[in-house]
Design goal:
By secondary structure, this protein is α/β, with parallel strands linked by helices. It has nine helices and twelve strands. The protein has a single domain (about 25-265), classed as 3-Layer(aba) Sandwich (Rossmann fold), CATH 3.40.50. Helix 3 (about 115-125) runs parallel beside helix 5 (about 150-165). The model is unreliable at about 1-15 and about 270-300 (pLDDT under 50). The chain binds adenosine-5'-triphosphate. Adenosine-5'-triphosphate (ATP) binds near residues 60 and 66. It holds the Pfam family ABC_tran. This is ABC transporter.
Length: about 300
Amino acid sequence: MSAAPDHAPVHAHRPAPADGCASALLQAQRVTLTRGNRHLVHDVTLALPRCGAVALVGANGAGKSSLLNLLAGQLAPSAGSVQWQGQPLAALSVRERARRVGYMPQRFEPYWNLTLRELIDMRLDGAVTTDRVLAHADLQPLADRRWATLSGGERARGLLAAVLATDPPALLADEPGAALDVQHRLALVTALAARGRSRLVVVVMHDLDLAFECFDRVIVLQHGRIALDGSPAELLHAPALDAVFGVHFQRIAVPPQTLLRARPAPTSPDHRPQAPMSRDHPAAPAANTPPTRHGAPDAH
Ligand SMILES: Nc1ncnc2c1ncn2[C@@H]1O[C@H](COP(=O)(O)OP(=O)(O)OP(=O)(O)O)[C@@H](O)[C@H]1O
């Protein structure tokens, strides 16, 4: 979004990425992915810089994972191209691509029932030790556990540590925090945002509050296209955000943050809140004001 917001930036506390970050590392040029007669990703053009924490958000089925797969070179576009520093990503060998792009899929099942230590060992090329990777991610207690015995959140943490073990210039992660408890999710998102100061980090996520609080840029997908693309300060108050997600967002100011609280969209008769019945008039709504939890103010 290019228009300057008419409100104070809500995330002024977030440090700016380091100098030399702005040049494009990964680019999608008019990329389309077609399956059957449907465009899962439709004519997307996007430039992702050398550093920055980018959140990729959108409703279920919007095409986030498909776009991430294209950017990681896991899928070939039906039209258009993905470029790494101006060169076609597809021209790189699998090994070269893996060195540049750390890709964390939404689901991962290794063929063998490896221990976490073995999984990380397989990724390393001698620059760091597996013990150091495990220690850095606070995963030593799980090191010798087999993959099948790990919980969903433990797997996610282990997989991310394995992907980051080689310190790739770009990390593309698909809902890495989905299975994490609140403490680990916060730690994860904070770490990813910090990584964005010196590397490119692109994360598919559903938690809009964390995306807007911690990331430098938010890209909103809708029906395979980019609906919105800008800084959190620019997008937080964009009315189009409500339309994309089919809800009405209350913007709740909790300085220095603004939280989004989703209410049913007022235009949708199916989503009107059910009013409690009054004793005297069972069919009549007891109040015509939509309920607000915690009495939170709407910043609009
Ligand atoms: N191989 C395929 N063939 C046909 N349709 C597919 C295929 N892969 C994905 N889709 C469809 O494409 C759409 C986009 O899928 P994608 O996984 O990219 O969405 P998403 O935004 O990541 O969704 P979610 O938030 O639910 O994970 C969905 O409607 C999905 O059902």
